[in-house]
Amino acid sequence: MITLDRLVNVLGGYGVQLRVCPMPRSAELGSVVLHEVAGGGPVTGDVLLAVGARSVDEAVRWAVSARATAVLVRDDDGTASSAEAAGVAVLVVEPAVRWSELAAVVYGLVLEGRETESGRGPTDLFALADSLAESTGGAVTIEDALARVLAYSSRQGGADPARVATIMGRQASERLHEFFSARGVFAHLATSDDPLFVGPDDDHGLSGRMVVAVRSGRELMGSVWVSCREPLVEPERTALADGARTVALHLLRSRASADLERQVESDLVIRLLDGSADAAASASRLGLPQGPMRVIAVQASIDAERDAALLLAFERATAGFGWSRPGRSALAGNTVYTLLPGEQATAARTWVTGLRAALPDRTTVTAGISKSATATDLPAARQEADECLALHESKPADSEPPAYDESWDEILLQRLRTAARSGRTPDRGPIAELRRHDRAHATEYASTLRAWLEALGDPAAAGLRLGVHENTVRYRLRKMGEVTDLPLTDARKRLAMMVELAAVDGT
Description:
alpha+beta, Beta-Lactamase, Alpha-Beta Plaits, about 15% strand, PucR_C-HTH_dom, CdaR-like_regulators, PucR_C-HTH_sf, PucR family transcriptional regulator
């Protein structure tokens, strides 16, 4: 639940202006509806999205029927008297703002009561854990489907070392997890909605637990744990079961608002990367500070499976409070793109390292980092990040992701190698003829020529590179002249030979 003042302030950044406000802006808002009739009567709510209204007066009539405090309407025909008389606040939406995008923001703000307009705000799971602790008489922990701690009660009745370690580690230790698995806890949660008691175990610092599944339909969304030395009896047992259903509703609502927010964020990031948006305005709406930023392109896989790993990477990249996440991310095709403020490549590599650490152990992460860019240069930076990503794929998986300003030379050669693999290298000329001679006679003329060129014509330095005497280098150069026309005195041709050798040799 938020106030009208909060709604007005946040939506002001999305192209929405307050037109009429006949009540205090401290009025609280707790629900959002569209204009429709269900069950023989209008749907009611605090905020009405007047999609399809032909005038402000019509939108106000809909709001009165819905008993709404505020109405959002597209057309501002200048009328205001009906709204003043009806006691309805009117917010006018600019024509360029899409209803689908605006609805995501409004639903997220009102239903979740967010503290930030750019990120996922706090839910009241902790308050719910406190309420359950009161009704069951024991300390409560709420976990997700992966057994990660989502919330816990401030009440410590029945708390034990296992609970403390679980909360501190944000999940049960591997040893405790194996203990619960051996007791059949996870198998029970997967198939039953009945609370299960797990008896005390001194070896694991466990005083006893009552656990129940949190489920939506057939999907296991998490679990609720209560510290207790004996199985709960009525009415505490029923309170726990009812509480699990309430937790499910909270998790569903949180998931829905998170998905809506991800859609809004992803759309804005993609528009920036495509160059199809007002760069400064879109960056501001994303909560990105003014100044340089880098584009990070990420791909992930678990063994041969890419889709699940990529979705998990996107979820982790967009998890948490908006103000606590330094970057803003989008999922486009098979790549996660993140806009990360800052000029140094070190910060971008640290971000990639943190993302990799948050994923399962078997996940392979490859990434590429653009040169620092302003908001208007992001389309070019995206291409740089893509090329660095392709370069990283050719390197060991545990190597640092390349940054464009540090690796432009390797990227240039990578482009040349790509051209070479597509058959664009000459099959005639000195380099091609030397390679054919090497294959036919087991000579090393091509590698000798490359070493001599890289040593700027110094036979001694070339010999050190090859591990041979400088006279051997001179001898090979004379023999190369018998195989092909070797234009060593022409600077442009020397450069062309160096490029061809670097492109085809791949190093």
